Automatic annotation (TrEMBL):
Organism of provenance: Paracoccus sediminis
Entry's family note: Belongs to the DNA photolyase family.
Domain of life according to the entry: Bacteria
Domain Photolyase/cryptochrome alpha/beta: 1-123
Cofactor requirements of the protein: (6R)-5,10-methylene-5,6,7,8-tetrahydrofolate; FAD
Keyword line: Chromophore, FAD, Flavoprotein
Protein name: Deoxyribodipyrimidine photo-lyase
């Protein structure tokens, strides 16, 4: 009996519930689908997925299998591969947002097979960590305490695979639509990616060997490259599971390694975001606190464009936005600073920022991106209050005291600034020695945000 395992943003063999179920039920066709809609909306994340495919294929080949890659709309591709192969079932993982598989179910059924959607190997199944009264947590800290008391399931080993009688045709891993969807020097982004599940496991081990107490403090310093795990893009494309990370980290803690508890707490934010997204699938478009949909946000326009291009004249913001564009990454502290500047000092709608991050980030994750933007904008459940306005200069003094991060991206002779120049489209080219005046005085911008917030609170 032939079955298909559709590798849907879970691009690994280890701890893969859908693959384990497929392998139990027949000879497996491993299938990845490059969806043009995904490439158009999230080109950097799509490119990152494409980079994960050759190592995944190599891992499958080492087990006598191989990866079939097809480009197209998932429902059409699945129906086609089912018909071509005579497969009786398709096994896959939940997608984000969590709802929305009806069209796929119908397409697979129409081709004569059954679609089985398996849970993701997150720390806990969605909706399983609840308050004493059985409701979802709205605040992270009690969620974390409850999760910490919950046994985390052991990761599943990579299964033995049986080859099908014939292999369907494969389009190969190149994804030109993803490259074309954004005018950007992709070779620069590629320099910052270590793709594949073996690379992710190696990165985890290296991180656990050095973590100690340095993580708690160092994780806020953007120039301190090694202080955090750097695993977010591997997690986002599913090259490593959160459960694998958890159990390896717990083993390191038992061996006496320090700093693990702080790290696991950060990792749990990812599950918290997924629980929120599961309960409120619209949080990437509407404010979790509905009254905030009426806040007088400013729309997209030249100010937002200056922010996107890293030309606000505010050093921490511009450094972060240039890092994001050049590398597809941005340090978490700088994400908070750049996002806060957009929604507070410029009062621009958080969705303008969310969409740009979704286009640029190699670690784009629908749930993490939405929850964090709502956190910064003050409209999420466990959010930073709107009246708490980060001063990007003070943040720079505190977390980039020696200016190493700002210099890396803003000094025209530094490697980062040169990478940004290489990655930027022709239309963005400017004299790198230009000294930009701040587009808004920080005190004036802060006061404008607070006044708008005051009027908004009093409006009824
Ligand atoms: P580590 O400190 O090593 O943390 C380990 C893992 O924990 C991370 O890989 C990540 O999966 C999880 N984690 C850590 N912090 C957070 C957090 N605040 N929220 C959710 N999970 C977290 N992260 C994404 O993965 N995708 C996104 O699209 C995304 N968008 C963001 C947008 C904004 C405005 C902000 C402020 C943050 C966003 N984050 C997003 C969270 C965070 O910035 C990244 O996960 C982090 O930079 C990852 O670096 P690391 O792997 O070295 O982190």
């Amino acid at each position: 009996m032939t079955v298909i395992c559709w590798f849907r943003r879970v691009l690994r063999l280890d701890d893969h519930p859908a693959l384990a179920a497929a392998a139990k039920n027949g000879a497996v066709i491993a299938l990845a689908i490059l969806d043009p809609a995904d490439a158009a909306a999230h080109p950097a994340s799509a490119q990152r997925q494409a980079m994960a495919l050759p190592p995944l294929d190599a891992g499958l080949r080492a087990r006598g299998s191989r990866l079939i890659v097809r480009r197209g709309d998932p429902a059409t591709v699945l129906a086609q591969v089912v018909r071509d192969s005579g497969a009786v079932a398709v096994h896959t993982s939940q997608g984000l947002p969590f709802a929305g598989d009806d069209g796929l179910q119908a397409a697979v059924a129409g081709a004569g097979a059954v679609l089985h959607v398996h849970p993701l190997a997150d720390l806990v199944p969605r909706g399983s960590v609840l308050t004493g009264s059985g409701t979802r947590f709205k605040v992270f800290t009690p969620f974390w305490r409850a999760l910490r008391r919950t046994p985390i399931a052991e990761p599943l080993p990579a299964p033995r695979l049986t080859a099908p009688p014939a292999w369907p045709a494969s389009d190969g891993p190149d994804w030109p639509e993803a490259r074309r969807a954004m005018d950007r020097g992709w070779d620069v982004v590629a320099r910052h990616v270590r793709a594949g599940e073996d690379a992710a496991l190696d990165q985890l081990e290296a991180f656990l060997n050095r973590i100690t107490a340095r993580y708690a403090e160092g994780r806020n310093r953007p120039a301190d490259d090694d202080a955090t795990s750097g695993l977010s893009d591997a997690l986002a494309v599913g090259e490593i599971s959160a459960r694998r990370i958890w159990h390896r980290a717990m083993a390191a803690q038992q061996d006496g390694q320090g700093g693990i508890e702080d790290f696991l707490r950060e990792l749990a934010w990812r599950d918290f975001a997924r629980d929120l997204f599961h309960a409120s699938p619209n949080i990437d478009r509407t404010c979790w606190r509905p009254e905030w949909n009426d806040f007088p946000w400013r729309g997209d326009g030249p100010d937002a464009e200056a922010w996107r291009r890293g030309r606000t004249g505010i050093a921490m913001v511009d450094a972060g936005m240039r890092e994001l564009f050049a590398t597809g990454r941005m340090h978490n502290r700088v994400r908070m600073i750049a996002a806060s500047f957009l929604v507070k000092h410029l009062m621009i709608d958080w969705r303008v920022g969310l969409d740009w991050f979704a286009r640029c980030l190699t670690d784009w994750d629908a749930a993490n991106n939405a929850m964090n933007w709502q956190w910064v904008a003050g409209c999420g459940p466990d959010a930073s209050p709107f009246f708490r306005v980060f001063n990007p200069d003070t943040q720079g003094t505190k977390f980039d005291a020696r200016r190493r991060y700002r210099d890396l991206w803003l000094d025209p002779d530094a490697v980062g600034a040169q990478e940004f120049a290489d990655a930027a489209p022709r239309s963005w080219r400017v004299d790198p020695h230009d000294r930009l005046a701040p587009m808004v005085d920080l005190d004036t911008g802060r006061q404008r945000a607070l006044d708008a917030y005051g009027r908004f609170k009093r409006r009824d």
